[in-house]
Amino acid sequence: MDLVIADDRKSLSLELASGVARFHAVWLRDNSLHPDTKSAGNGQRLISLLDQSLDIAIEAAALKQGVLVIEFSDGPTKHSFPVQWLNENRYDKAVPVKKGWTGSDVKLWGAELNQAIPTQSFEAVESDPQILKQWLFDVRRYGFALITDLPDHPEAFLKVVEWFGYVRETNYGRYFEVRSEVNPVNLAYTSQGLQAHTDNPYRDPVPSMQILACIENSTDGGESIVIDGFKAAKQLQQENSEHFDLLSNYCARFKYAGEQGVTLQSKRPMIELNTDGELLAIRFNNRSAAPFVDIPFETMPAYYEAYRHFSEILERDENRVSFKLQARQLFIVDNTRVMHSRTAFSGSGTRWLRGCYPDKDGLLSTLASLEAAENS
Ligand code: FE2
User: Fold this and answer.
1) 188 CA to middle of ligand 1, Å?
2) Hey, which of 43, 127, 151, 201 has its CA 20 to 30 A from 66?
3) The domain spanning residue 76 has which CATH number?
């Protein structure tokens, strides 16, 4: 295995399983795994960057049985880096050049998912950690999954949240009811169909997941529809890259002030990218879009064309997965990615759902911990 220290001793290169990678001395010293630098107990860093010189150099480096041992210019301590760890944490790699990319954890989908909706029964997940892991994996992968056969209790859906995290309480309460009302404070509480949307884009931070559980659904219609917003954004980019750029470069505004004492507002793009171009989040909700005031006068007509184009993509059957949620079933969506809507339903019968907002960081944390436990 080739190990070469650069002439200025500010970096080294090393052949790894994934190919040759370079590492800077300043990066290696900052990420030292030595117990003087990182707590052996919780893995948290014990030093500040201010404790370290940016001119730090590599005095010596050697490979011993799959471990790279380095002495830096700041002292005689030997810092050990397992080669496998270096391979997992390499940063000397090709940078994605195209905006709107998604990571390997994410699989984009369209109507074909109608034939393979990720579904588990409550009992199966509750009794088998492997099935829980599979279900959480599917939620991370598709941003959407179902649970069937909930216990016959109207708050049973909260048990599902306990599998991976916590409910975020909002002005709508710990959970909220979605059913027909005579004088609704929100259009969700009527029998009208709803355009595909992400929930509560007027919050900052936005609710990152939503669960909707069915208590009763004896109406005609009222089918649930879910759409992969990341796939729709990629389609927008393929069909007109300027439209994609407009929705990602400019901020929209969202507002909700439908209750006494509540004035929620946010300023964020409809398609949010990370600084490296990774597709980060979709915010789309015609009901709570506020006047857009952050787009130049000359650009506003083009922005509306892009907004309209994106809206049209969401209406295409090829992008829609639909199902009629039955009593004691629930679905979960990644509210930063997957849009949901429903068809209109008749006034006879009852359509009664209960919803809540768990957070995605808890779900990803639980899944990563289950995966790490399996690999250790
Ligand atoms: Fe909604």
Assistant:
1) 7
2) 43
3) 3.30.2020.30
Total domains present in the chain:
2
| CA-wise closest residue to 216 among 351, 45, 366, 319 | 351
Together in a domain, 269 and 362: yes
375 Cα to the center of ligand 1, angstroms: 37
CATH number at residue 142: 3.60.130.10
- The answer to whether position 150 is within a domain reads yes
Is 124 in the same domain as 268? yes
What is d(CA 151, CA 328) in angstroms, rounded to the nearest whole number?
7
pTM value is: 0.93
Residue 101 in any domain: the answer is no
Q: How far is the CA of 310 from the centre of ligand 1 (A)?
A: 18
Taking the centre of ligand 1 as the mean of its atom positions, its distance from the CA of residue 196, in whole angstroms, is 8
Q: How many helices (H) does the chain have, and how many strands (E)?
A: 9, 21
Q: What is the phi-psi region of residue 56: left when phi exceeds 0, alpha when psi lies from -120 to 50, beta otherwise?
A: beta
Q: Is residue 103 part of a domain?
A: no
The angle at the Cα of 84, spanning 78 to 86, to the nearest 5 degrees, equals 60
Positive or negative, the CA dihedral 332, 218, 354, 184 is: positive
pLDDT in tens, the chain (376 residues): 599 999 999 999 999 999 999 999 999 999 999 999 999 999 999 999 999 999 999 999 999 999 999 999 999 999 999 999 999 999 999 887 789 999 999 999 999 999 999 999 999 999 999 999 999 999 999 999 999 999 999 899 999 999 999 999 999 999 999 886 545 566 666 777 789 999 999 999 999 999 999 998 888 888 999 999 999 999 999 999 999 999 999 999 999 999 999 999 999 999 999 999 999 999 999 999 999 999 999 999 999 999 999 999 999 999 999 999 999 999 999 999 999 998 888 767 788 999 999 999 999 999 999 999 988 7
Claim to verify: residue 38 and residue 120 sit in the same structural domain: no
In the sheet where 194-197 sits, what is the strand order? 194-197, 338-342, 224-228, 320-323
The domain in which residue 195 lies consists of: 111-374
Answer yes or no: is 105 within a domain: no
How many A from CA of 198 to the centre of ligand 1?
A: 6
Q: 342 C-alpha to center of ligand 1: Å?
A: 9
Q: How far is the CA of 17 from the centre of ligand 1 (A)?
A: 46
